[in-house]
Amino acid sequence: MTDIIITQTAPVLVAIDISKARDEGLIAIADKKRRRRLTVLNQLDDFNRLITSLACYGRPVRVAFEATGNYHRALAYHLAAAGFELKLVSSVALARTREALHNSWDKNDPKDAQVILHMMEIGNEQFYHDPLVRGTNDIQERSKTHDIVSKSKTELWHRVVAPSCGTEF
Length: 169
Prior knowledge:
47% of the residues lie in helices and 19% in strands. It has helices at residues 44-55, 72-81, 91-102, 109-121, 131-134, 137-165; strands at residues 12-17, 22-28, 36-41, 61-66, 85-89, 126-127. The chain has a 6-stranded mixed β-sheet with strand order 3-2-1-4-5-6, sandwiched between helices. A hairpin with a 7-residue loop joins β2 and β3.
């Protein structure tokens, strides 16, 4: 009888908590118990250093992060260009999972990286689509502009109409 051996390379999981100046990350490798912490400044040199260190593992790499404003876009673009699989973690799901795991609403970047890694391990992640690569950035910018204009219009309307409505003689 022939033995069939199927080897599957488990991906390296990378959880990154994005912030304005620096990103806190956590790397987990399937056959190792210890996780590696890392800090990446939002600079091209650090992006390249991270990409080089992840490529050295010789395994597929899956990176997950929470989208925070526009701060995640530069790092995500460089990681996708390097060929890594990118995943997105919902902000609401991250907050609820953090509360459930740590029995606290207290938040910090290393703790969020641990929670993101936990969510990756249980498969609670979404696909990430880069708007520049997909060609949807124009739609996003128009949507943001519409939102700003609508809020400004409502604010102006309340300033002009509200004082006159409340004064009756």
